[in-house]
# Entry
Amino acid sequence: MSNHGAPKTGLWSWITTVDHKRIAALYGFSALLFFVLGGVEAIMMRTQLIVPNNDFITARTFNSMVTMHGTTMIFLVVMPLSGAFFNFLTPLMIGARDVAFPRLNALSFWVFLFGGLLLNFGFVINEAPRGGWFGYANLTELQYTPDLSADFWAMGLQVVGLASLIASINFFVTILNMRCKGMTLLKMPMFIWTTLVTQVLLFLSLPVITIALVMITFDRHFGTGFFNPGVGGSVVLWQHLFWVFGHPEVYILILPAMGIVSEILATFSRKPLFGYSVMVYSTCAIGFLGFAVWAHHMFTTGLGPWATTFFVAATMLIAVPTGVKIFNWISTVWGGRIKITTASLFGLSFVAMFTFGGLSGIMHSSAPIDSQHQDTYFVVAHFHYVLYGGAVMGLFGGIFYWFPKISGRFLNETLGQIQFWLYMIGFNMTFFPMHFLGVQGMPRRNYTYAPDMGWDLWNFICTIGAYMTAVGGILFAINLFYSLKKGEKAPADPWDARTLEWTIPSPPPEYNFGIEPTVTHLDDFWHRKYDEEGHKKQLPPPAKYDPHAIHLPGPSYWPICLAAGLTCGAAGFFLKGFGLYVSLVGVAVILISAYGWAYEEA
Amino acid sequence: MVSLVRLLKVLSFLFLASGLNGCFEKLPMSTAHVVTEWGRQINHVYLITTVIVSLIFVAVAIPFCYAIWKFREKEGETRMPKQITGNHKLEIIWTLVPIVLLIFIFLPTLEVIMKRAEAPPEDSLVIEAIGHQWWWEFKYPSLGITTANEMFVPENTHITIKATSGDVIHAFWIPRWGGKIDTLPGIINQITYVTPSIEDAEKGDYYQGHCTELCGLSHARMRYEAVVLTKDRFQQWSKVAMQPPVIASTLEKKGQELFMSKTCFTCHAIEGTQANGKIGPNLTNFGNRRHLAAGTLNNTKDGLHTWLRDSVDSKPDYQTIKPGSLMVFGPNFELTEGDIKALTAYLQHSTAKTY
Ligand SMILES: [Cu+2]
# Structure
C-alpha cells in the first residue's frame, strides 16, 4: 500500500504523520516554543538580580525559575532541537527514504511533547519544580519538598527521557543499516558521525537517570529511603547516579552542534572538513571519555585524594580531542573562500565561544581551583559559553543553513545578521562579567544578594545583556514567520554545498530520493559538481522515475495514543486519591495502542 | 564605520580593565584576596592555569581571526580554494602540545590535592560546623561551646572544621580562606585551615561565609562569619561564651519570662535557663552577634523587631524577611510591641558578654 491518497495538509495530517521531515518540523517548532519559555524564565531571573535586595519575584518563584530554566533549556530545547536536525538530516544525508522505524519516530516526538507539558504542569497549580535541574536528594525528598513539585520534575523527566531513549535506538539503527550504496562509515558526513555517537551516549546514559528517578519516586511515594541518610541511605549516591548520566548529557548537547558546525564551515569555506578522520576519532574519544569524568561535578563532596586525582586527569584529558577539533575547524576555514552569511557567522562564533568556554572548563578541571569556583557565577559563565555560545549558536547556524532545504525559502539575511550581532554582543555582555562575579565570590542560585558585596555593577550589566539577547530572539521569531510565508524562494542547492541532501529539490519530496543514490566519495555531491582541479563539471540530466511506484509507510494515530497513555500512566503517580485509576487508564490505553499498532498495515 | 570599531575597542578595553581591577578589589567574598595557606595554594595553581589558558586562547584566536579576515569572500571573487583534506603532521602537533601544557596544570594540581589530604596536627582545634535550613551551628567539643552564625577562632592556629548537615546538603565556604567543602547529612567532611593573622585586634576580623549548595527557599540568606581574635581574647571568649545571661533590669526579667512562656524555649537553647530547644540557633551568645538570622539583618533593636514581627505575622513560605524560615508559630500566636521590647532587651543585653 502506498499512502498517496492520505491527506497532506491539515491538523490530522500532522497528528498522524510518520514522515521524518514533518516530525523534524514538529520537533523544531515545539523546541522553539519551549525556548521562549526558558528564555522568559531567564529574563525573570536576570530582572530579579538587576539590583541587590530586589523583590521582583519571590524566593519560591526564583527557585522555580532556576530549576525550570535549566531543565527546559537542556531537555526541552537543545535536545529536541538537535532531535529536529537528526530527524530531518539523517535520512537525507545518508540517502535513505525515511528512518528505520517511522512510527517509533512519531512516538518519540509525542512522548517528548507530552513529557515536556507534564514537566511544566506544576506552573498551572503553583507547584513548579524548584529543587534545581540536578534535583539533588535529599532536598527533593518528601520531607523537604512536601508538595508535588518534585514529582512533576521526576515524572516529567522520566517521560522526556523515554522519548530520547526511543529516538536514540531508532537513529542508531537507521545510521548503521540504511546508508545508501557506497556510503561506508568513513564516508558519512561529519554530522552523521556526531549523531551516531550522540545516540550511543544517549542509550548508555539515559538508563542511569531513569533508575535514579525511579528511586527518588519510590523514596517519595513508598518510603524506600535510598537517599535518606536517616534510614541508612546516601545523598552522595544520588549525585553519582545523576552525574553518570549528567556528564555524558553535556556531550549529548554539544556533539550535534559540533556536527552542524563542521558541515557549515566546510560548505561556506568551500573546502572539505580538515582532518575528517581525526575528527571522527576525536568525536568517539570525547564520547568515550565523557563517561569517565562525572565526578568532577562532585569535587567538593569529599571524594578522597586518589579519586579526585583520577577525575582531574580524565577531565583534563578530554580537553585534548576537543582541542583537536577546534584546530581542525580553524584549518578548515584557513585558505578557504568564506562566504559571510548568518549561518556561517553563527558557525564561526560557535568555534570562538566554545573555545572560550572550553578553556574556562580547563581551569576548574583542577579540583583545588574548582573548590573556589564551584557553585559560583564562574561556573555559570563557563557552561553558558559552551552550551549557549556553543550549542545554541551552532543550532541557530544550522537553522539558517538548512531552512531553505526544509521550507523551500530562505530566512531573511538582514534580520538574521542583526539577530546574530544582538546575540553575540548580548551574550557576551551577560556572561563575560559573570567570570568576574565568580572570582568575587558570588554564589549561584541565590534569589538575591546584599548590596555591600561589590557585585552590583556586574549584575546590572549582565541583565542589560540578557535584554539585548531577548530582542534578538524576538527578531528571530519575526524572521521565522515572515520567511515561512514570504521568504525568497530557494533552489535545490543554494549554498553550493557538499552533501546528499542538496541533490534533491527544496523542500524535498515525501520520498526524498526518486532513485536511491550511490556514493563514491566523502562529500559526494561536491565531487559530482567539481573535478579535482575545482572546475565545474556538467551534471548529468536527472534520471526519470515513477513517484507512484515508491512505497512509503502510511500515517498512523497509534503513536500519539500510546504517548498519551504513557503520560497518563506517569501522571497518575502524583494525583492524590484517584491517581491509581488514572495510571490504570494509562496502562489500558498503552495496551490498546500497542495492539492496534502491531496489527496496523505499515 | 572605522570610528565605530575604534569606539568598540576602547569600550571593551575599559570593560576588561575595570573587570580585572574589580577582581583584585578587596571585596568581602573575593577569591582573589585570600588570607590562608590553603587559599594561596589554590591561587598559585589558578595563576599558572590562567596564564596557560590565556596563552592557548591567544594562540587560537589570532590565527582564527586572521583566517576569517584574510579568506573572507570578496565582492565578485571566483577563486576556488585548494581542497585540502588534512595534514597528519600538524594534527599530531596539536594533539601533543596541549597534552604537554596540561601536564603543567596537572602537576601543581596534584601537589595541592595531596597536601590537602595530609592529616591535621593533633592539637588542631576541632569545630563542628552543622548546616541547617537556613543557619549555621558551630560546636567546639573540646571547649564545650555551642554557638551559631558566627564562628570565633584564634589567629595563626590550626583549626579543623568537621562539616555536616542537620537536614539537606549545604556547603561550607569562606571564599577568602580558600576552597569550599560540602556539608552532607549523614557524612562528616573535614577541612583544615591555619587561621590568618589578625589585622584589627580591637574588633576582631570578620570573614564572610556563605552556603553554596541550593538548600531550599532561603539559600541566599544562609550566610555566616568567621571571626578571628588574638589568642588571648579567644581564650577569654571561650571562658565567657557559655555563661548564662545576666539579668540587669525588670524589662530584661520580663523578657526572660516571655521567652520561657512564648514557645521560644521550645526551639532555642539558652545556657542556665530551662530553654533547651534544638530546632533553632543557640542564643546563649546572641547579644554578641553582629547579625541575626544568618546575616539577614543587623542585630540591632530595629533588626530584631523586624525579625520577630515578620516571623509572627507572615505565613511560612512567604515570609518577607526570610522566605521559608522555620521559625514559625501557631495560628493564634500573638506578640505585642511590649513583648518585643522586653524580648529584645533580654536577648540583646542579658546575653552580651565582655571578653
Ligand atoms: Cu544551605
About this structure: The helical segments of chain B are 2-24, 37-70, 88-117, 231-240, 250-261, 264-267, 301-313, 337-350. The pocket of copper (II) ion is lined by residues B 131, 134, 170, 211, 213, 215, 219, 222 (CB under 6 Å). The mean pLDDT of chain B is 90. Chain B has three domains: 2-17+28-70+85-116, 125-240, 250-348.
